[in-house]
TrEMBL record, chain A:
UniProt KW Transmembrane keyword: yes
Subcellular location(s) per record: Cell membrane
Ranges that cross the membrane: 12-31, 72-96, 108-130, 142-163, 184-207, 243-264
Primary localisation category: membrane
Chain coiled-coil ranges: none
GO terms, biological process: transmembrane transport
Membrane topology designation: Multi-pass membrane protein
Alphabetized SUPFAM superfamilies for the sequence: MetI-like
All copies of domain ABC transmembrane type-1, residue ranges: 73-264
Keyword list, A-Z: Cell membrane, Membrane, Sugar transport, Transmembrane, Transmembrane helix, Transport
Name of the protein: Multiple sugar transport system permease protein
From TrEMBL, chain B:
Listed GO biological process terms: transmembrane transport
Keyword Membrane on entry: yes
Similarity annotation: Belongs to the binding-protein-dependent transport system permease family.
Ranges for domain ABC transmembrane type-1: 102-313
Principal subcellular localisation of the protein: membrane
Lineage: Bacteria, Bacillati, Bacillota, Bacilli, Bacillales
Domain of life: Bacteria
Name of the featured protein: Multiple sugar transport system permease protein
Protein's membrane topology: Multi-pass membrane protein
Entry annotated with the keyword Transmembrane: yes
Transmembrane segments: 45-68, 106-127, 139-157, 188-211, 232-254, 260-281, 293-314
InterPro entries: ABC_transporter_permease (IPR051393), MetI-like (IPR000515), MetI-like_sf (IPR035906)
Length: 279, 328
C-alpha cells in the first residue's frame, strides 16, 4: 500500500516537472511582455516581472507606420472567418457526396482527394502565384480565401469518417418519407455531424490565423496585413527597440487561439484522435 | 473459425428458399435501376463538384504548369523561355547552396521527426498509466502544439535562444558556460530541431487514443504468461500501435521536409546557411531572385523525394504494420 503511494508521488513529480519545463517558454513570453522594456534581458529567465508594465500593450498596439494592431486583428479575423465558412460549407457537401452517394468514378476521385491531402501547399505555391498574378489578384484576399471554397481534403476526410458512423437506416427512412438526397443531407445528416463540422471549423480557424506564407507572398500593402505578417515586421531584429511591446503583441496574437482552445477543447481532442486512428 | 462457417451456411438457407419470389419481380428491376443510377451520378457529381473544380484548377493545372516552368527561364516579367534541362543541370552540378539546403533539410527532418514521435509516444504511455489529473497534463502538454504554428512562437524562440535570452540566463545562473546558440552554425539548426520536437502534442493525442484502444486483457493475459513491462511494450504495445505510427510517420515526414516558418523567422537561414531549409531556399529563389523556372524545378525535385519516401513507407508497411483484422 505504502509502496504504491510512493510510486504515485514519484510519477506525479516527474510529470509535473516535465510539464513545467514544456510550458516554461510560453509563460516566459507572457511574463516578458509585462517586464519593463529595458529589463527584459536582465535576469532574462525569471518569470516574475518587477512591476507590471501593462503599458507595453498600449505602446505595442500602436503598431508601426501609423497602422495600429486593430487593423491587423480585423484583417486576420476577416480572412480567418470567411475562409473557415468556405472550408466547412464545401467540405461538408463533398464529404456527404463521397460518404453516402453512389456514383460512377467515385473511387478514383476519392483517391485523388487523398493524394491532394498529402500534397504540400509549397509544391503548388509558385504556379498558383503566377496564376493569381495573371488574374491581378495579388495584394487582395482572394488568393487566401477563394481556394478554401473548393473544400479542404483533411476536413472532407474527417467529416466523412463521422458520416460513416451514422446508420444508413436513417437515410432510408427519410427516403421512404419522400426526401431526396439534398433533403437527406441538410435535414438528417447535417444536424448529426455538427461536432465534426465544429472540429473542422476550429482547425480551419487556427490554420488561417497562423497562416504566414500565404500572406507573405500575396500581400504587399501593410494596411492589408494579417497579424502574423505584421508581427514578423514588428519584430524585425534590426528595428526592434521596444522588446516589451514586441512580447506583448506576440502574446496578444495567440490569445484568440487560446480562447478557442479552452472553449472547445473537447472537439479538438476528439477530432485529432479520430482522424489519426481511423485512417 | 468453425462456428462462423456454420453460421454462414445456415443464413444462406432462407435466401435460397425465398429466391422464387425475387424472380417474379425481376423484369421490373433493370429499368428502375438504370434511371436511379443516372440520377445518383448527377447527385454525386453535384455534391463533389467543388472538389473537382478545385482539383483541376488549383492542383492538377498548377502541378503540370510547374513541370513546364521547370524547363524554362522565367522571371515573371516576359514569357517563359524554354531552356530544356538547364535548371536541373545547374541545380545538381553548379549550385552548392542547393546541396547545402538539401543536406540541412535531411538532417533536420531526419532528427526532428523521430525525436517528436518518440517523445509523443513516451509521454502518451506515461499519461496512459496515470489515473489522476490526466486531463490537466494532456491539456498543458498539448498547448505548445496549439500555438506552435504561430509567428509569435517563432519570435519567442529567437529571443529564448538569443545571446541574452532565457536559456543563456538559466545556464549562467547555474554556473554553466553560455553559448551563442543562434550565432554558431553548429548549434543553430538544433534550436529549430528542439522547436519541432517541443510541439509533440498532436502526435501524443493520436498515440494516446491508440493506446486506449488496446484491450487491457492482452496485458493481463501476457503477465499471466510471465511477460514483464519491457517485453509487453515490444510484443503488445508497439505491434498494436503500428497503424497509428504509420499514419503519424507519413504526415510528420512530409511536414518536416516542408518546414519554412521556423527557419525564416528564427534564423532566416543563417548563420552561413546552416539552417537554410529547402523550402526557404525555394522561397528565396522564387520571390527574392524571381527565378521562377529554377524554383519550380526545385519544387519538382522535392515532390519526387516526398513521393519516394511515402512510397517506401507504404511499401514497407506490410512488413511492420499490424492490422487487427489480419488475425481474424
Amino acid at each position: 500500500m505504502k509502496n504504491k503511494k510512493w510510486k504515485k508521488i514519484v510519477q506525479h513529480t516527474i510529470m509535473i516537472v516535465f510539464t513545467l519545463i514544456m510550458i516554461y517558454p510560453l509563460v516566459w513570453m507572457v511574463s516578458s511582455s509585462l517586464k519593463e522594456s529595458s529589463s527584459v534581458f536582465v535576469d532574462a529567465h525569471s518569470l516574475i516581472p518587477e512591476g507590471w508594465h501593462f503599458e507595453n500593450y498600449i505602446t505595442g498596439w500602436k503598431g508601426f507606420g501609423g497602422i495600429s494592431f486593430s487593423t491587423f486583428f480585423i484583417n486576420s479575423a476577416i480572412i480567418s472567418v470567411v475562409a473557415t465558412i468556405g472550408s466547412i460549407l464545401s467540405s461538408t457537401l463533398i464529404a456527404y457526396g463521397f460518404a453516402r452517394v453512389k456514383f460512377a468514378g467515385k473511387n478514383i476521385w476519392f483517391v485523388c482527394m487523398m493524394l491532394t491531402m498529402m500534397l504540400p501547399f509549397e509544391m503548388v505555391m509558385i504556379p498558383q502565384y503566377i496564376m493569381f498574378n495573371k488574374f491581378n489578384w495579388i495584394d487582395t484576399y482572394l488568393p487566401l480565401i477563394l481556394p478554401t471554397f473548393f473544400g479542404i481534403p483533411f476536413f472532407i476526410f474527417l467529416i466523412m469518417q463521422f458520416i460513416r458512423t451514422i446508420p444508413t437506416e436513417l437515410d432510408e427512412a427519410a427516403k421512404i418519407d419522400g426526401c431526396n438526397s439534398f433533403q437527406i443531407f441538410y435535414r438528417i445528416i447535417v444536424p448529426l455531424i455538427v461536432p465534426a463540422m465544429m472540429t473542422s471549423a476550429i482547425f480551419s480557424f487556427y490554420w488561417r490565423w497562423d497562416d504566414f506564407m500565404g500572406p507573405l507572398i500575396y500581400l504587399s500593402t501593410p494596411e492589408k496585413y494579417p497579424v502574423s505578417l505584421a508581427l514578423k515586421l514588428f519584430s524585425d531584429p534590426n528595428s526592434v527597440t521596444n522588446w516589451g511591446a514586441m512580447f506583448a503583441m506576440s502574446t496578444l496574437s495567440i490569445v484568440p487561439i487560446f480562447v478557442i482552445f479552452f472553449l472547445f477543447q473537447r472537439y479538438i481532442v476528439d477530432g485529432i484522435s479520430t482522424s489519426g486512428l481511423k485512417s | 473459425m468453425l462456428p462462423k462457417r456454420e453460421e454462414q451456411t445456415t443464413t444462406t438457407v432462407p435466401e435460397v428458399s425465398s429466391e422464387p419470389k425475387f424472380k417474379q419481380m425481376e423484369p421490373l428491376k433493370p429499368a428502375r435501376r438504370n434511371v436511379k443510377k443516372d440520377n445518383r451520378n448527377t447527385t454525386g457529381y453535384l455534391f463533389i463538384s467543388p472538389f473537382l473544380l478545385g482539383f483541376f484548377t488549383l492542383t492538377i493545372f498548377p502541378i503540370l504548369y510547374s513541370l513546364y516552368l521547370s524547363f524554362t527561364d522565367y522571371d515573371l516579367m516576359g514569357t517563359p523561355s524554354w531552356i530544356g534541362l538547364d535548371n536541373y543541370v545547374r541545380m545538381f552540378t553548379d549550385d552548392p547552396t542547393f546541396w547545402k539546403s538539401m543536406k540541412v533539410t535531411f538532417f533536420y527532418a531526419g532528427i526532428a521527426v523521430p525525436i517528436r514521435l518518440v517523445f509523443a509516444l513516451l509521454v502518451a504511455m506515461a499519461l496512459n498509466k496515470i489515473v489522476e489529473m490526466v486531463g490537466l497534463y494532456r491539456t498543458l502538454l498539448y498547448l505548445p502544439s496549439v500555438v506552435g504554428g504561430s509567428i509569435a512562437v517563432s519570435i519567442m524562440w529567437r529571443q529564448l535562444f538569443g545571446n541574452e535570452g532565457a536559456v543563456n540566463s538559466i545556464l549562467g545562473a547555474l554556473g554553466l558556460p553560455t553559448h551563442s546558440w543562434l550565432g554558431d552554425p553548429d548549434t543553430a539548426i538544433w534550436t529549430l530541431i528542439v522547436l519541432y520536437g517541443w510541439q509533440f502534442g498532436s502526435s501524443m493525442l493520436i498515440f494516446l487514443a491508440g493506446l486506449r484502444n488496446i484491450p487491457k486483457t492482452y496485458y493481463e493475459a501476457s503477465s499471466v504468461d510471465g511477460a514483464g513491462p519491457v517485453k509487453q511494450f515490444f510484443i503488445i504495445t508497439i505491434p498494436l500501435l503500428t497503424p497509428v505510427i504509420l499514419f503519424n510517420t507519413i504526415m510528420q515526414v512530409i511536414q518536416g521536409f516542408m518546414a519554412f516558418t521556423p527557419s525564416f523567422v528564427v534564423t532566416n537561414g543563417g548563420p552561413v546557411n546552416s539552417t537554410l531549409l529547402y523550402v526557404l531556399y525555394m522561397y528565396q529563389r522564387a520571390f527574392e531572385y524571381f527565378d521562377m523556372g529554377y524554383a519550380s524545378a526545385m519544387a519538382w525535385v522535392m515532390l519526387v523525394i516526398i513521393a519516394i519516401f511515402t512510397a517506401l513507407i507504404f511499401k514497407s508497411s506490410p512488413h511492420w504494420v499490424h492490422y487487427e483484422s489480419d488475425n481474424k
